[in-house]
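TEACHING EXERCISE
Course module: macromolecular assemblies
Task: Read the component lines below, then compare them to the predicted structure of the full complex.
Student: A.B.
Group: 4
Components provided:
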Amino acid sequence: MNWMSLHRRLERNAGLLIFGVLLVSAIGGMVQLLPIVSDDSHARPAPGLLPYSPLELEGRDVYIRESCSTCHTQQIRALLAEVRRYGPYSRAGEFAYDRPFLWGSKRTGPDLHRVGGRYSDAWHRLHLLDPRSVVPSSIMPAYPWFERNAADRRGSIQARMRTLAKLGHPYTEQEIEAAPTALEGKTELDAVIAYLQSLGRSMDGQPQP
Amino acid sequence: MHYEDRVVTAFTYCSVFWALLGMAAGVYVAAELVWPTIDWGWPALSFGRLRTAHTTLVLFGFGVSALIGTAFYSVQRTSHVRLFAPGLAWAVFYAWQATIVLGAISILSGWNAGKEYAELEWPFDLAIAAAWVSFAVVFFGTIARRKVESIYISNWFYGALIIVVAMLHIVNSLALPATLGKSYSLFAGAQDAVVQWWYGHNAVGFLLTGGFLGMLYYFLPKQAEQPIWSYRLSIVAFWAFVYTYIWAGPHHLHYHAVPEWLQSLGMVMSLILLAPSWATMVNGIMTVSGAAKKLKTDPALKFIVLALAFYGLATFEGPMLAIKSVNVFSHFTEWTIGHVHSGALGWNALITFGTFYFMVPRMAGAPLYSARLANIHFWLALAGTMLYVLAMWGAGVSQGVLWLSLDELGEVRFSFNDVMAAMKPYYLLRFLAGLLFLAGAALMAWNLAKTFAGRRTVTVAPPAIAAAGARA
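Instructor-supplied answer key:
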């Protein structure tokens, strides 16, 4: 039996064809995904990495809501020019609490992985409310509603932290209980700034290449 | 007995509608990069949300509606039977359109799962899964009842689209819901990145490539009135495509915090992918080479053949961009956007337009309202795509080179801001390119609407099959 007549059986049997496509297409994914998702070393937190505080988590979820990762990457590639421009290249362990990951695929604005501590809170406040007031050539949208919206408008911070705790983030019950208090009187602007200031700090004070 | 074409017509209407709306959103976000204050402080018009709505509308509104519609059209004709379970086909139609309407609203009002090209939150993920399974039942049910012995090539590709996209969608959407509008991915950080790009790249692979190749294998030979040049080549190209594409995802993660073996494997498989991609292109070009005369005058065929050329261009550019030393420069730049649009505009949109120009007069039972308008559309689409791609090449190569440029002391030579400010002329050109392309699509919408307006009720019965091809 040559391969053409073998194929004739496939193309005359829908069940066989479905099974064949499923089998052939699954191989690549299994070889690439299974070793990665089953190897804990890719998900082990870097030594100084802490889970996001309630305010930072709220800021991160606002960052996701506005699709900031459309224009800002959080991934410093292991290239000299990138390390010079943005700081030490990104390590897998630094993203252990990132669900989903926010590495992005496009840099319309600069990379933000190590933006934490680079600017003052006051600068961020001005920049988020009116980017062109501090960077005249900026094409970033202004986010005036961050200042108007109270942090955690929907009162879901505890539900969110409990979900993350189920996925393995080390939040204690006391931290979850105290979360609404921690967000009291804060705006989304405070939350986003807290999140940005937390980025890329887990390697501070460690020897770097 | 006649073919169930009303559901195809409904998908066609909606696909054209989503094309106009999705492309208009694209033009608007392109304008926002030139004039950043035109969101007027309104969250729903803000770049991040509107851009996400743009990709969702064109991919899942325009693209998938066209794919399901043409799959339903061609599977009946290649199987010589009426669609299996037409009621379920209508359920797929309503479920899908409702998902797009509500999904787009949810994104504009701030629901976002944060994964690229899979931003819809978990309630929509469930709806998509249910609609997709129903699509599979209708499609494979029709094939199971076919009167023709062999399952035709286009159906292999549509079938692969259904099967593989189901697999990708389910795995990549695995998440734990916290509230109705918020869930957290089951995977974190680097693991999430690897899963996401396995999905992201193969959504391109099996939706934008595989699905539309199904369209090509049915509508190109039909419109060219030529048989497929080589059946053997189709077989080899199909299985090589299904096997190889799925490995290419990690080229999105070059020099990222994922293992080196994964990146290199992704790169090598991306290069190998050129072979099945171009095998299909050669098969298509050889098929149409017997219809050179018709190519000069027939707008539908012109669209399909130009799409094939852009398919060849994009599937060459893709493997080149996957080479690590090229990717160093292209990654994170506008070049990526240019590459995506040479595929999305040049290949996906053009072949869909050509297919609609083929299908609508047949379903309406009336000739196309205006071939002249279709020809104008052709040139607008070509000009828009070329201008778009050239602008993004210029922008992307500039970014790539300037970002990595170091002076003699090893310090970066250009500030990020200076490079960003230099992008303005390119962004303006891209905006104009988008306008041209959108104007062409609007002409098509008008042309097709007028064609439908002149319709007579037609019902098409399956033709008799020669004894040799009939199913025992």
